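B., you asked whether I could sanity-check this one before it goes into the benchmark set. Here's the sequence:
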Amino acid sequence: MKIHKLLNMERKSIQTSRLQISYLETQSKASQTVVFIHGNASSSVYWKGTMNALDEKFRGIAPDLRGYGDTQDVLIDATKGMSDWVEDLQALLEKLDIKKYHIVGHSLGGAFIFSLIAKYSEQVLSATLINPGSPFGFGGTKDEKGTPCFPDFAGSGGGIVNPEFANLIAQNDKSTDNPQASPRIVMNSFYWKPPFRPESEEELLDGLLSQKVGENKYPGDFIPSSNYPFVAPGKYGSINSASPKYIKDTISNFLNSTSKPPILWVRGSDDQIVSDNSLFDLGTLGKMGVIPNYPGEKVFPPQPMVSQTRYVLEQYKQNGGNYTEFVIEDTGHSPYIEKPDVFDKKFHEFLNGIA
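And here's what the prediction gave me:
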């Protein structure tokens, strides 16, 4: 991993109209702003290298989302989808008097961008999606159009998370004692492609462990279902916010947005978290025999997450937008950390082509 000498980067905290938000900032006097949105089980610190590599004409801002990092611990109303995060960011930008910006999102943060553009497209100069979660949400859908497997959206929401993983986060566990749920093992097995290990591993692990855990936080509440895998979404927390149940009209609003900023879609070739056969999807795990009582692929196939993203972006293109898909070979879920030189070159070309 390329080591960036961190210059002119500050951790700040500001009271907005909604909550106290913690964020990283670089180049505060630059002419343009790039906003970075982290994924699940991480925080703003995951963006340090990428932010520090920005051209000096770009100001970098990376907030800790509600439920993560050092931002005020306020419950997420999942029934509004990702709207709590969208409105939190809007409140931060208003407080900082930022009217136009480039947005970058990774994983859950990439899926968030669909909701952001659906409501505030006119403020977005460009969008970079890095291994984004499906625009239709995580879990419980079965084709490229995002058709739910069941009416209650079973197979998505807080009940699909390994509870021991959440428990170990709550305990701030940094060991490797639990091969199936240790946060360190999960991070090094799935956030990037082994045997890669970032030199900033300890700081990144601390970012993962900063996630707020609790019944209505992470992984969130859930309800029993008669449908495989026998859990359906609850009403609170980040994973429920990413359920297809609460996406509602987000995609139609995204596709029909007044302004259509150019999109760069970057993904790692060997991602095991967001893929058409994700090892975090209960369709894949059922097919593999890991989850009992699997009803078969016709009823609950692996969610085609990458195909769903491509389907929506192709529609976006047909509606007047444009996107570029860029695959970084021999990387996993975080190619911007695994191969920063390759990522930064493409990312900077994209930004400078718009700036």
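One thing to flag: Residues 1-6 have pLDDT under 50 and may be disordered. Otherwise nothing jumped out at me.
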